[in-house]
Write a structure and sequence with these properties.
Elements: H1 4-24, H2 28-51, H3 57-80, H4 86-108, H5 118-135, H6 141-173
């Protein structure tokens, strides 16, 4: 149950208050690098889990929860600092909260959840790039962010179809 990938995921949870403290202390660009460190732990835990066949049910549930929780912390810090609009924050929050709640409901109902796919990983990278643009005050940062928000909703729709297909196949084989 507790292996290196899961420990890295827990470290990502622990980086959330560190990120918030550094951001709120006015070191916004340093906070971005803490966010990148969290992203690195995400890449590492996934790589190690797949490479060494250490994928666990706990890790499959905690990993996306850590990602979404970190992203919600980032969204809140950016909106309360006035760096992004409330509308953009609401759209991002709605999507991430929906993914968290949906995954939890499906998990506790014994349904299989869809593992991260290429679109999900691409969306995460694009979010990091959009946040970089926001933090470094790029002229079209908010427009780029809205494009990524749109892509993230498309990705969510793809996940929903994959979830339905995965669980339909499960119920047919039972």
């Amino acid at each position: 149950m507790w292996n290196l990938p899961n420990i890295l995921t827990v470290c990502r949870f622990l980086l959330i208050p560190v990120y918030l403290f550094v951001f709120e202390s006015g070191f916004i660009r340093t906070a971005f690098f803490i966010l990148l460190l969290a992203g690195l732990t995400d890449v590492l835990d996934g790589y190690i889990a797949r490479k060494r066949k250490m994928i666990t049910q706990l890790g499959s549930m905690l990993d996306p929860l850590a990602d979404k929780t970190m992203m919600i912390a980032v969204i809140l810090s950016l909106v309360f600092s006035g760096m992004i609009s409330w509308e953009a924050a609401a759209a991002m929050f709605l999507r991430d909260a929906g993914m968290i709640i949906g995954s939890a409901i499906f998990h506790f109902r014994g349904k299989q959840t869809v593992p991260a796919n290429v679109m999900g990983k691409l969306t995460t990278v694009l979010y990091y790039l959009a946040i970089l643009l926001v933090i470094f005050e790029y002229k079209y940062a908010e427009a780029c962010l809205w494009l990524v928000i749109f892509i993230s909703f498309l990705t969510s729709i793809i996940y929903i179809f994959q979830f339905k297909s995965l669980n339909k196949n499960e119920s047919e084989s039972s």
